[in-house]
Predict the structure.
Amino acid sequence: MSEHRIRFTLNGAPVDLNVPAERLVVDLLRNDLGTTGTKDGCSVGVCGLCAIQVDGAPMSACLLLATQIDGTDIRTVEGLASALQEAFITEGGFQCGICTSGQLITADALLRQNARPSEAEVKDFMLGNLCRCTGYYGIGRAIAKAAGAR
Amino acid sequence: MRPFEYVEPETLDEALALLADDPEDTLVMAGGTALVILMKQDLIRPARVIGLRKLSQLRAVDTADGLRLGALATHGALARSAAVRAHEAALARTFAAVATVRIREQATLGGNLAHADPAQDPPVTLLALDATAVAMSKARARRIPLDALFVDVFETSLEPDELLLRVEVPPLPAGARATFQKFLPTTHDDYATVAVATVVATDASGICTHARIALGGAGPVPLRAYDAERSLVGRRLDDGTIREAATLAAAATDPIADLRGSAAYKRAIAGVWTARALREVA
């Protein structure tokens, strides 16, 4: 019913477009901008598949209206290139892969604000990213390895 | 999601004028974690949503006669706030243990209170700390003690043209000790089966001079167990008085049966956790 011009950066690149008020960020990313690394899972903010960073803070793209990211700096899995991804590969931090982009973006947010998190801090920060393959040990090892490499 | 009109006022005056002119079918959005889900599931159908994100003065947290917590402060910001931690560590821990990091970064204090979900944690600790909400409409400002804010499930005493501005938490009595605990038998990001906050102060001879017991998930609103509190004041906190208070607290609850347990089970568990929380601060 109303259209809004929004401007933000997506992985460092400026984006400027019009969206209807009801557009969700997860749909904006996947359907309008074609960045499908962000997955749509539970759609109620619980599973963590659609985790993105908004000004560095992890949030659920399925719970954000596109108007809410106007003026922000958005980072998605497409914007990551780090030892963290290498560690997920070498430590077996994924099995089927559906949760992986959310795991990576959340872990990246953690390591940016806390370079050497304790095991308890990792568990607390990551607890909202579900892995239906239950690959949590591999994910934990990968984060520990990436933290050690920083 | 159904289409709606979205408005983003630049100032508080503008927001209050919008609400005063036409509060019908208009909803206010802070972080949006609750509102967006309800809209996606077609449980609410606002014609207009007023987004508050530009009212940055409502994010402020400061210390004036206790604590003043801006309604747009996120759970994450409140958990990290040195002022909140210095006032009462149990309050910072309460915010730090809500849901997941993603929710804490997006969801706000004011949104949490206005949503009035009886299973939420922050109202429990804030009730035990004697917090007061400050609301404002174009016509007036109003102070609402927290136990008068919650009316029923998802229902508050806020008028349609009122906006929550902040929550004020008064200084604690000298020597007061506080705790917040929640029973999470399934996962750590779940809603608590029951949650309890207790605040207790004792005099030099160990006699209780101040007692607050608040419970979440235990009725249609977050509630104070007034009879249990009164039973402690003027007495020593020992096994007997704590057990008696826990029984009275359980009797004050009015839980519903759901996937987290039957009403009778939750009532019993409310007593168990009240006793644990009282022992921690005794």
